[in-house]
Each structure stands twice: as C-alpha cells, then as structure tokens.
C-alpha cells in the first residue's frame, strides 16, 4: 500500500476519535475501581496498558469505566483524584 494513503487513513481515524469521544462522554465521568476483568474503558493509572478491555484484576483501583456523572461513589468507585492518591500511596509502600 502507498505510505501516504496509510498515513492519511491513520490521521483520519485519529481525528474522528477526537470529535466523537467528547460527545459520547458528555454527562459521564471516569470511575476507578469498579471495572471487572477485561471490562475497563481505557488505559490505567500505572501505565501498564493503554487500551480498553485489558484489565486483569476485578475492581483494580487503577482501572476505570465511564459512568453517569454523580454515580461513581454509589457504585463503590473513586474519582480520579482519590484513585491517583491511593495509587501514589501504594507505590511508596511497595
């Protein structure tokens, strides 16, 4: 395949993600610590992966799912500030 065509397709895909993602996330928030194995929505706090569906532990506090705004704590999860503080504290202990 032509390298220019591949580059153009990659750019188009990246730009379409930027346009769609904020619209689909309206009224949502990241909720950490509620995702089941393989049920996370994207990368984790530890930076060990950057894709959805790659969590390997149930309710890992570093993994997140998008939930309706205001429902995270009701589901037993944490918002990013709390999750990040817990992650940083665990790194200092370990």
Helix content: 25-40%
Number of helices: 2
Q: Approximately what portion of the residues adopt beta-strand conformation?
A: 5-15%
Instruction: Identify low-pLDDT runs.
Output: 16-21
Any idea what the shape is? globular
Major β-sheet profile: 2 strands, antiparallel
Cα end-to-end separation? 48 Å
Overall structural class, as computed from helix and strand content, comes to: alpha+beta
Order of helices and strands: HEEH
SS elements, strand count: 2
- What does the average pLDDT come to? 84
| Widest sheet: strand ordering | 1-2
Spatial extent as radius of gyration = 16 Å
Give descriptors for this structure:
94 residues, alpha+beta, two-stranded antiparallel sheet, 2 helices, 2 strands
Can you describe what's shown?
This protein is α+β, with helices and mostly antiparallel strands and 94 residues long. It has two helices and two strands. It has helices at 3-24, 80-93; strands spanning 28-32, 64-68. A two-stranded antiparallel sheet has the order 1-2. The longest helix is centred in the N-terminal third of the chain and has 22 residues, at 3-24. The chain is globular and about 50 Å long. Residues 16-21 have low confidence and may be disordered.
SSE arrangement:
Elements: H1 3-24, E1 28-32, E2 64-68, H2 80-93
Antiparallel strand pairs: 1-2
Give a quick summary of the entry.
The protein has 94 residues and is of the alpha+beta class.
